[in-house]
Amino acid sequence: MEVRELTCIVCPVGCRARVRVEGGRAVGWEGLECRAGEEYVRREVELPLRDFFTVVRVRGGGVVPVRSTGPIPRERLLEASRELAGLEVEGPIRVGEVLVRNLLGMGVDVVATGEVEG
Amino acid sequence: MRMEEFEEKVRADPSLSRVSLRARLEEGTLFLEGETDTWEQVVELGHLAAGVEGVRGVVNRLWPRGLPRPERRREPKGRAPWDGMRADVVVVGAGIVGAAIARELSRYELEVVLVEKEEDVAWGQSKGGASWIHGFAGMDADPSSLKARLCVEGNALYDRWAEELGFPFHRPGLLAVVMGEELVPLLEVAAERVREHGCPVRVVGREELHRMEPGLPEEAAGALFFPTYGVVAPYAVTLALVENAVANGVKLLLGTEVIGVRVEEGRVRGVITDRGEILTSFLVNAAGLYSDEVAELAGSPEFTIHPRKGEMLLIDWKRAGACRHNLAPGELSEDPYTKGGGISLTVDGNMLWGPTALEVPHKEDTDTTREGTERVWERFSRYLPSIRRTDVITAFAGVRAATYTEDFHLAPSRRVRGLVNVGGIQSPGITAAPAIARRAVEILKGEGLELREKPSFNPIRRAPPRFRELSDEEREALIAGDRRYGHMVCRCEHVTEGEVVEAVRRGATTLDGVKFRTRAGMGRCQGGFCTPHLLRILSRELGRPVEEITKKGGRSRVVVCRIKEPLLRG
Amino acid sequence: MEREVELVVVGGGAAGLAAALKAREEGVGEVWVLDRNEEPGGILPQCIHTGFGLHYFRENLTGPEYIHRFVRRAREEGIVMRLNTMVLRLTPEREVVAVNPQEGLLRLRAGAVVLAMGCRERPRGSLLIPGGRPAGIFTAGTAQRLLDVEGLLPGREVVILGSGDVGLIMARRFVMEGIRVRAVVEQLPYPGGLSRNVVQCLEDFGIPLLLRSTVTCIHGRERVEGVTVAEVDGEGRPVPGTERRIPCDTLVLSVGLIPENELSEGAGILLDGRTGGPVVDEFMRTSLEGVLACGNAVTVFDLVDHVTLTGERAGEAAARYLRGELPPPRGVREVEPGENVRLVVPQRIAGEGPVTLYLRVSRPLREVRVEVGGRSFSRKAVRPPEMVTLTLGREEVGELGERVPVRVEGLPLER
């Protein structure tokens, strides 16, 4: 059993929580003041997810910003970034266009968030 | 003071008890060798030595125990494109002095080569420092000294230079202000000393002073007014001189460092650079901070440079109305070797405050410091109380090439024929430059250089257009001729792409090169907006990948590589 | 070229586009947006992270996605966009003089002007950080542009000075691109950015956050070779003996944003010394007739959603002004920032309300009471990076006197 310290980010109070973690699950906590905080802390301990976004190279120079269509596990952020490092796309590209399907088998796509001219 | 007295003085001084000193006087050059505890002691002894009878120059090789010595690699670069080049005269150093001399020489039928170790001209003392064209060399300067005489001579020559070379120059004059009624009677006494230099000056009383300069505080009681004080941008003068010299046939070799001088039978035969040897019989050493080292390479050590750092503050030009004249403290500065600095107007509306003066052991020490910054602020903010800290755009520092005699060393070498040393040109070097150049040419003539006038010499150099200074009609015409003058790339100084392209055409290959030619990057955002634009334009105009563009040559790359490379390398 | 234009908007970022669209919606026939960049959107296209639009769209969007919606609508609504166009000056008579490569000099006589120039970053020079002037010193926004628009790496090993949001965001971007972030150095005893960013940009990646510290020297002649970091006392002065050197090749600065105000100053518009931007009323009117301001040019906002709202307010007011339907300011009440309040906008209340006030507190507090005039509002906790928004209804505005003191009371909030 371990005790982890986390800052809750749900509201500006920023409660500092101490969470008892066993077998990857939050089994008890202190320092939180509300329900939303409890839910946040539980998720952070058990399966922290993060939005994934980066830029991808465009043929001819420059880059286009992209994001995943849903959050991915925090632990796989760098892996996702490396996965897209070698990718080079070509215009025209519309905002929302899918550039990579099912990134690393995580069930999310990578879509363009900016435009590229043809 | 005779040599024996000098040595006795050193021996008797308890603060110098741990100094081991060997001194020898040879044909007017006093050589000092040994070790000290501190750098201050090295400088102190050098200054003391300069006072010995018969000494024309001090070569001070004293060094503090334990202090790392500067590294000078002096290795040939890969290729030697200049090898075998022939020149009538080689001028070393493309600062204002070297450039002025080269331009003077370009009036004659001569093959002149101007050699500069940096990637661009004016990157030594000529880019730092205040903007003053001095009326005289300072209260502590001896009016009969070379620097004092050449200062006054040079000052008078600036109008013509500005007209021919197209650099901005004007004469707002200088007010040396005293704060306190009790100091006012001393002003007339001081004025007499100034007149000994041949510099016009008059005393200004309280009322007139406040009319001339409404921004001064109540305590300002009176001043000396020097009407011949002017302002220039030293790097702009240097650039103009170089362009004119090159237009008149001078060969400019950048990125080329002198690593040796071939002397045979007591005369110059060639200048060995890190890119090949240039054959010549005449060498003008205008290498600024390194002029002592070039003299030594030629086997003619006659002086050494002790670097004196000066820190300055740059004030935003939006406060341009705060001050109408250059200002200086009327009281003498504590340091006898420096004029004390002041509040300088500039040609662009900014103010420069400073410089300080600090003896430092290393010539490359251009770091700004907290103490230096505070010192400048404290010393000068009292003269213009309306200026706030938030008006300060940045601080920078430069290093003066001071000899121990604290005078210019402008003379043919005593040992090597064909070598003319133009060393130790510190302030008022910018002012004196036109006069130094003439003198240097006279000296060369005296050394046997044949001077035949070149009928095709054209003294006129036109400055590039500056969008910021043009009227709307002129701007329209400029853009109609080249659309790139309609693309603004520097938000603070209103510099256009057209000007940047022109700067590259005139020799800029780096961000700083563009900056000094156009002002892009000098404004209040300090390059935050323009840098990505300038990188792109430089890359395009030079045909180089953007990762190779540098701020100031060498290893100063701005961006390190393209995105994703570190991820792909793993 | 010279012409009359009904509404000229200076700046095509979030604020400017919102103002332009709203004005168009309210019936203004000719709306020109002038922007100095080659693509519209202001700073948003380079803010590739999420967190935008949570309030305005109730969606979690990246910066480019957020602004794309406005750019697309601007195209559809026939708003005239002039890109690569730098406004050189604004005269008190509302002449806008600008320049671009295609048309040369433009002289636009505007019926109304909306200033939406956004903000710029404080550079190293203005902080007077001692040391050399090597290559490798960037403000965070410039580093962001180089990385996420130009596709170029500013460096390989970075120290970030300032823990404001822009610096934190870039810390994460650097790590994701294989650039090592050695530390984020913050002068205050608490981080300058949102807690969310401290967690997701620093803690997630194990980047050390050095509080109560600053950079005291930059080393390197040609390129940055390292920085010296020291602790600071209560007055921000370095404590001797606490210096240590951190090797790096890049220093990124996130030490302050300043509203762009050269045009405002040049036109003689009254500025607020606290915000650095123009004094405005709740209609976003400046002291110059027919000239309004919105977005970060007024004060640096925390959320783009607020920027958009102030833009819409300016656009709407501009439309009413052009129709002659905006009552001139009468019985103006001056908003006065008091205890624990660093700044408030709008600084003036000219009408009957409702009025939304945006304020920044000067230190973190909990169990907070915000007092505006005679009224009191409570908040659980407030921090400098997060603006406090308050809306005063017509009744509350009616009760206000000539001076409207705003103060904040509360207990210290420790992290």
Describe the 3D structure.
- The complex is a heterotrimer of chains A (118), B (570) and C (415).
- Chain A is 16% helix and 36% strand.
- With 118 residues, chain A is an alpha+beta fold.
- Chain A folds into two domains: 2-47, no CATH class; 53-112, CPE0013-like (CPE0013-like fold, Roll), CATH 3.10.530.
- The model of chain A has no long low-confidence stretch (mean pLDDT 93).
- Chain B has 570 residues and is of the alpha/beta class.
- Chain B has a six-stranded mixed sheet, with helices on both faces. In chain B, strands 18, 20, 21, 22 and 23 form a five-stranded antiparallel sheet that branches. In chain B, strands 1, 2, 3 and 4 form a four-stranded mixed sheet that branches.
- The mean pLDDT of chain B is 96.
- Chain C folds into three domains: 1-121 and 256-326, FAD/NAD(P)-binding domain; 123-255, FAD/NAD(P)-binding domain (3-Layer(bba) Sandwich); 329-415, Immunoglobulin-like.
- Helices cover 21% and strands 34% of the residues of chain C.
- In chain C, the strands form seven sheets. In chain C, strands 1, 2, 5, 6, 7, 8 and 20 form a seven-stranded mixed sheet that branches.
- Chain C is globular, with a radius of gyration of 22 Å.
- Chains in contact: A-B, A-C, B-C.
- Strand 28 (561-562) of chain B pairs antiparallel with strand 11 (152-153) of chain C, so a sheet runs across the interface.
